[in-house]
Amino acid sequence: xxxxxxxxxxxxxxxxxxxxxxxxxxxxxxxxxxxxxxxxxxxxxxxxxxxxxxxxxxxxxxxxxxxxxxxxxxxxxxxxxxxxxxxxxxxxxxxxxxxxxxxxxxxxxxxxxxxxxxxxxxxxxxxxxxxxxxxxxxxxxxxxxxxxxxxxxxxxxxxxxxxxxxxxxxxxxxxxxxxxxxxxxxxxxxxxxxxxxxxxxxxxxxxxxxxxxxxxxxxxxxxxxxxxxxxxxxxxxxxxxxxxxxxxxxxxxxxxxxxxxxxxxxxxxxxxxxxxxxxxxxxxxxxxxxxxxxxxxxxxxxx
Length: 303
Fold this sequence. Notes:
By secondary structure, the protein is of the alpha+beta class. The chain contains eight helices and five strands, in the order ααβββββαααααα.
């Protein structure tokens, strides 16, 4: 649990609200439910909002504690219950309630399928079970109420944006004209990591991958979730099976981000290597002069 606690000493990293503190957190079934809902819980925790997974009327819900002690219930269909996997329902309904004030009941978001065929569709209904518009709606309403601890964009990176990837020659195995811009960009980031001269430089590059709302892992989770929604549009059995596989992939990626979210802090805390001191070089000595030739004694004349 300690590895998941936010580090208050680092103001440069988005601090996630702590995990719930109850015995179910240690159970495999709860951890699996949490994993399937990280696309909902991680963005909210990045905004400073504690989250938990509970059982509602007939399905599991996300409960979000707000600063004024009211709470949000983010729920899939309950009556009749959804036959979809947890975390991937046909739609979501979000209500705000207060345990001490029964008069407070507000529907903030509702993308559930309409039960009345003659009713006009709600604007949110077109989003179905997608998480991104749900989070945007909560941002908007909680900002209006002054209940968003991290108002505005959840994170402003202090690190410089990596330079644009340098052009690379196409591999000989690629088809002529094929382009892999996103793979090239990640390879460029890997090259920069290999060339990093200090743990702080490496941590800045890890930040680009692990930032919980805008980093590569978060966006990759959104990508697979969108791919799953696209697969459903085929309205075929295999399309629905594929959508479940893609939704599982998105949840796995988000869970990986949850596990590694302190890696940036740990990397930055490492002590950089210092080069071994060189032995002081001996002062240069002037070349020795050859010994002077002996001076010949003047010859004496004898009489």
